[in-house]
Design goal:
The structure is a single chain. By secondary structure, the protein is of the alpha/beta class. The chain has one domain. Helix content is 33%, strand content 23%. It contains 5 helices and 6 strands, in the order E-H-E-H-E-E-E-E-H-H-H. The protein has a 4-stranded mixed beta sheet. A two-stranded antiparallel ribbon has the order 3-4. The radius of gyration is 17 Å and the shape is globular.
Length: 158
């Protein structure tokens, strides 16, 4: 089956995102845009992970749906959204920032897992918890976030 998907999403816990990036908000915009599969983003953030576990239930293998689909409303009153179901794929991003030959390098790796148990196993890894998605550092001043990121990078090197 073919899907239209947006798999690089950030939660409201991430920097520079809309506070309306709730699951219902994301699903509403997905329906307006005709997107059937949306990444959850930021499953490494403890607050967001709790929201995901509370609001989502399994649908098709590896995909989830909102427990309360009635909460999905169109963000644009003048646009009639698609009635097609919206599914969620558990996703996160690891942002690795380092210097090589005096130049700052940034590598963003997207993670996708099929179920909450897999996400919990990844979240349990200490280095991932420290170094994972910039969402976990979102509420900290940039200097503190950079310090934690450097510490995590040093730990990863052993």
């Amino acid at each position: 089956m073919d899907y239209i998907a947006d798999l690089h999403i950030h939660s409201p816990y991430s920097r520079a995102t809309s506070p309306q990036s709730t699951l219902a908000g994301l699903a509403g915009w997905a329906r307006v845009k005709g997107i059937q599969v949306i990444g959850t983003g930021d499953f490494t953030h403890p607050g967001w992970f709790g929201c995901l576990k509370e609001a989502l239930e399994p649908a098709e293998p590896g995909l989830f749906k909102l427990k309360n689909e009635a909460a999905i409303v169109s963000p644009l009153a003048e646009v009639r959204p698609s009635a097609a179901p919206v599914r969620f794929l558990l996703s996160a991003e690891i942002s690795s920032i380092y210097k090589r030959h005096g130049v700052v390098r940034k590598v963003h790796n997207l993670l996708y897992v099929p179920d909450f148990a897999s996400a919990e196993r990844l979240n349990a890894r200490e280095i991932l918890t420290l170094h994972a998605s910039h969402a976990s550092l979102a509420s900290m001043p940039a200097e503190v976030a950079a310090l934690i990121d450097r510490a995590a990078t040093a730990l990863a090197k052993g």
